[in-house]
Amino acid sequence: MLMYTIVDYFTVAETARLLKVNPITVRRHIQGGRLSAIRAGRGVRIRRGDLEAFLQPVSMAPVPPIHPLTEDDSLWTLVGAATHAPPSDASRKHDYLADRQIDGSAA
């Protein structure tokens, strides 16, 4: 049977200070099952080993490089599709508002 000393356990507040987060965040990790904890009387304690397991580094997938948009890309036709289109009502809203202001009529 393994015997642990009192220094092998952290309170929620101590764990939060170590992780530099709010104690509520620690409690959410416990409630979500991401961080193991035990109840000691009315308090909650986190075993040092469980905290170390929680802090294991996570490998992230590499981000693919962003390629610049070229003329042979199918997106190129979409980007330039509206360059020859007549102005829409949305593009002329400032003209409309300016005309209404000059007329003195409220919108």
Nutshell version of this structure?
This protein is an alpha+beta fold and 107 residues long. The protein has five helices and three strands.
Walkthrough of the structure:
- This protein is an alpha+beta fold and 107 residues long.
- It has a domain at 6-54: Molybdopterin biosynthesis moea protein, domain 2.
- Helix content is 38%, strand content 10%.
- The protein has 5 helices and 3 strands, in the order E-H-H-E-E-H-H-H.
- It has helices at 12-19, 23-31, 48-54, 74-79, 93-103, and strands at residues 9-11, 38-40, 43-47.
- It has a 3-stranded antiparallel β-sheet.
- Strand 2 (38-40) and strand 3 (43-47) form a beta hairpin.
- The mean pLDDT is 79.
SSE blueprint and pairings:
Blueprint: E1 9-11, H1 12-19, H2 23-31, E2 38-40, E3 43-47, H3 48-54, H4 74-79, H5 93-103
Antiparallel strand pairs: 1-3, 2-3
Helix pairs in contact: 1-2
Features of this protein?
alpha+beta, Molybdopterin biosynthesis moea protein, domain 2, 3 strands, 3-stranded antiparallel beta sheet, 107 residues
